[in-house]
Amino acid sequence: MAETALLELDRVQAWYGASHVLHGISLRVHQGEVVALVGRNGAGKTTTLRTVMGLMPKAEGRVRFAGSDLLPLAAHRRFHLGLAYVPEDRRIVPGLSVRENLRLGLVAAKAEIDERAAIAEIAETFPRLRERLDQEGVTLSGGEQQMLAIARALIARPRMVLLDEPSEGIMPVLVEEMGVLFRRLRDQGKTLLLVEQNVEWALRLADRAVIIDQGEVVHESSAAALLADKDIQDRYCAV
Questions:
Q1: Are the CB atoms for 90 and 146 separated by under 8 Å?
Q2: How far apart are the first and last CA of the chain?
Q3: What pLDDT was estimated at residue 239?
Q4: pLDDT at 188 (0 to 100)
């Protein structure tokens, strides 16, 4: 019998008003797996993440996470099930310190988590943030703000994290640091669904790859196989 997926999308469709964006997306992500969702800009990658998180005005089909049907649930209920989301715009709250932004991540947790221990754990994982806990979050560099957004998602110890373009606009040295972090999370058995325009970087991190084009899944394989297939990359991922 096939292993049950942690996240499953089956023939999912989504709309922004009259604009039909997703046309029957089906994909699965298993516990402990890193899946890269790649494709050109406007292909429907971000819309797929937003549909999972309950942020689309209209969606149909089936979305299941850890055995629960998500589409009837409000967005905050999905967080309580153990889903976390790092949007492309990061959403660091002005006027709040790094520590206070991290505390916001604990609000989403259904289980009681010791704040002091959780922040200490994050500080160990993100040394750059440890040095800046009392600094206002929006004064960090772009790469450090991205790390804060990821840390805020991780602090509630979710079962799965959805990341939208984490390397976008980040200096190469911080992109490499982020790659080290994601590899460590993968080795710890974390489950990640990663939308990324930096295809080669994403494929070197992921176990599997799914390509979306014009709102449909057009290719699925191991990440290593897609990394070696330049023809497929050029057909569906080249800018």
A1: yes
A2: 40
A3: 67
A4: 87
DSSP designation for 5: P
Kindly give the pairing relationship between strand 208-213 and strand 191-195: unpaired
46, containing H or E segment: helix 45-52
pTM score: 0.93
156 near 78, Cβ under 8 Å?
Answer: no
Among the listed residues 54, 151, 59, 55, the one whose alpha carbon sits nearest the alpha carbon of residue 102: 151
User: Cβ atoms within 10 A of the Cβ of 175, count?
Assistant: 17
Report how far Cα 63 is from the mean position of its chain's Cα atoms.
16
Side-chain-facing half-sphere of 179: CA atoms under 13 Å: 19
Report the distance separating Cα 134 and Cα 41, nearest Å.
36
3-state SS assignment for residue 54: coil
Pairing of strands 216-222, 208-213: antiparallel
Alpha helices in 83-221 (DSSP H): 98-107, 115-125, 127-130, 142-154, 172-187, 199-205
pLDDT in tens, 6-41: 999 999 999 999 999 999 999 999 999 999 999 999
Residues in the chain predicted with pLDDT less than 50, given as ranges, are 1
What are 137's two structure tokens? 């979050």
Whole-angstrom CA distances from 97 to 92, 105, 139, 150, 171 are 10, 13, 9, 15, 23
